[in-house]
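Lecture 7 notes: from sequence to structure.

We start with a single chain of 204 residues. Read the sequence below before looking at the structure.
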Amino acid sequence: MRTRIYLVRHGETDWNSGGKFQGHSDIPLSDKGREQAKRLAKRLKNVDIHGIYSSDLCRARETAEIAAKPHQLTVQTMTDLREINFGGWEGLTYQEITEKFGESYSCWSENPLMTRIPFGESLQDMVDRCSRAMQALILEHPGETLLIVAHGGVIRTIVGTSLGINMNLYWKLKVDHVSLSILEYHGWDKAILELYNETCHINP
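Now the structure, written as tokens:
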């Protein structure tokens, strides 16, 4: 039986607009992010959704809660759906990271799967936990449609692994705030990408 997964990135935060790496830092939505989430809710209000899951970080959870209101569903959180742990890079801009952690950032840029961020994770760590979360959800919800609200890195990981992409190139997948992507799973190991990074609900 097929399982349809609606994947959404959380709304914008002040750290996003400031160009700061967030990772596991629990940064709330900005006013702009909340407005984006309301537009997402309007876009999805007529979709027959059976369950809503999100990362436990507040920017994803709040986005999911706003989207859940028209469906009268309770958001269930999963720590495995968190963004990659950027460790010592969190709260810093790209320029600050390259100045303070130049060598480690260079290694991570070339081989993120196997390079552990200082005090954080490797991309392989996130791939493993996201795969574990998706397998559990697909097995638990055969024949149903789920909304998952997570983070840019998580969505790149889920889409990339589903399509067999070399995950060292995962940054080539663009994921905008509150963008919508749809995957249809026929069993755990067979997925079809139906839609990717749609933003017409926030960019009419």
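The first strand starts at residue 2 and ends at 9. Keep this in mind for problem set 3.
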